[in-house]
């Protein structure tokens, strides 16, 4: 991961962008910046007070050039400044793509200053304020999920406050980074107000199978909600591909059908977490999907501690707040109030 260079990273950004563009011609594409684009990896200094030779200007210039070719209506200013943007996909429907490495604890620049690098959250709040005034629905895209252990605490807390405030217009949030298939429910007290979808990855690191996902979103119609209605995840079984020399992609599972969900509202996701807490068989299905159906010979086993941790992950969107985590573990332990729990990793 450390054997990268500016030239190498830019080449990969360029090739990936061109490949996606070639396979999805004339389809709007909304890229998100990730932690491996930087060189050295993970490092995203504050453009406001960083010496010129240490900035990521070289990277932002390249992604601006590449993304301008696929993102409809992209105004380049914020990409060039900090790797984030906001575009109106169609009247009433806005896409905001974030540079979440300003909230990633492996970005060591945050040890110097953890107060909203590149003024990104300040900008996000202003964008959402304008979107609310204009009656728009918004989808948020990012790389590092806001509740994971390596999310930086200040950023995690402030991001959640913004989600609470704009619950009424934020209709979906999409993240990656962990390589695992998971989700994070956002809660305000006991009420589920949002969910972050964390899709599994193409890369098989951690012995997973390569994966991709198709989301079905409420589309163009009067009174559309722009909510995610369902999603299906596809994988390629790497063991089988090695044995047969054929890469066969197939649907691994469908969310509504396989998790028996009536719909995909935040409270349905919270309900799934509670049901998994009380039903290990249901959790085992989630765990198989979490690993993209990894080869059993290579797959990580999920012992009882892992079971509780993974349940906890599904209800943690602010890593400073473990109340929902304790509640889901209490349900798993069938009502033992006195939870002594320490989050690993
Ligand atoms: Zn990542």
Automatic annotation (TrEMBL):
Secreted as UniProt keyword: yes
Which cofactors does this gene product need?
Zn(2+)
Q: Which CDD domains match?
A: MPP_ASMase
Taxonomic source organism: Halocaridina rubra (Hawaiian red shrimp)
Pfam families in the cross-refs: ASMase_C (PF19272), Metallophos (PF00149)
Instruction: Tell me where in or outside the cell this protein is found.
Output: Secreted
Question: Which family is annotated?
Answer: Belongs to the acid sphingomyelinase family.
Gene Ontology terms, cellular component aspect? extracellular space; lysosome; membrane
Protein name as catalogued: Sphingomyelin phosphodiesterase
Annotated keywords: Glycoprotein, Hydrolase, Metal-binding, Secreted, Signal, Zinc
- InterPro entries for this protein: ASM_C, ASMase/PPN1_MPP, Calcineurin-like_PHP, Metallo-depent_PP-like
Q: Where is the Sphingomyelin phosphodiesterase C-terminal domain?
A: 206-326
What sections of the protein cross the membrane? none
Q: Biological process GO terms, please?
A: ceramide biosynthetic process; sphingomyelin catabolic process
Q: Name one GO molecular function term.
A: acid sphingomyelin phosphodiesterase activity
Superkingdom classification of source = Eukaryota
What EC number(s) is this enzyme filed under? 3.1.4.12
Report the residue ranges that make up the Calcineurin-like phosphoesterase domain in this protein: 15-180
């Amino acid at each position: 991961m450390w054997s990268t260079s500016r030239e190498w990273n830019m080449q990969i950004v360029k090739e990936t962008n061109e490949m996606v563009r070639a396979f999805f011609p004339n389809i709007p594409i909304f890229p998100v910046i990730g932690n491996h684009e930087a060189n050295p990896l993970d490092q995203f200094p504050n453009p406001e007070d960083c010496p010129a030779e240490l900035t990521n200007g070289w990277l932002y210039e390249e992604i601006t050039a590449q993304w301008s070719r696929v993102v409809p209506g992209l105004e380049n200013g914020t990409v060039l400044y900090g790797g984030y943007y906001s575009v109106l996909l169609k009247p009433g429907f806005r896409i905001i793509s974030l540079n979440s490495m300003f909230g990633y604890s492996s970005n060591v620049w945050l040890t110097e200053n953890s107060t909203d690098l590149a003024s990104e959250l300040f900008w996000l709040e202003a964008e959402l304020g304008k979107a609310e005034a204009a009656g728009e629905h918004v989808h948020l895209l990012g790389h590092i999920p806001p509740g994971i252990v390596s999310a930086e605490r200040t950023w995690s807390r402030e991001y959640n406050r913004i989600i609470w405030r704009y619950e009424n217009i934020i209709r979906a949030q999409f993240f990656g980074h962990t390589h695992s298939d998971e989700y994070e429910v956002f809660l305000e007290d006991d009420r589920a107000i949002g969910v972050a979808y964390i899709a599994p990855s193409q890369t098989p690191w951690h012995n997973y199978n390569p994966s991709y996902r198709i989301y079905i979103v409420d589309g163009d119609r009067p009174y559309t909600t722009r909510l995610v209605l369902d999603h299906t995840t596809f994988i390629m079984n790497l063991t089988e591909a090695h044995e047969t020399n054929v890469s066969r992609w197939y649907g691994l599972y469908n969310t509504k059908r396989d998790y028996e969900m009536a719909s995909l509202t935040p409270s349905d996701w919270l309900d799934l977490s509670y049901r998994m807490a009380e039903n290990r068989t249901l959790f085992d299905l989630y765990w198989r999907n979490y690993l993209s159906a990894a080869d059993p010979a290579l797959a990580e086993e999920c012992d009882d501690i892992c079971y509780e941790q993974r349940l906890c992950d599904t209800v943690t969107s602010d890593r400073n707040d473990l109340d929902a985590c304790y509640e889901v573990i209490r349900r798993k332990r069938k009502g033992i109030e006195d939870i002594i729990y320490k989050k690993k990793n």
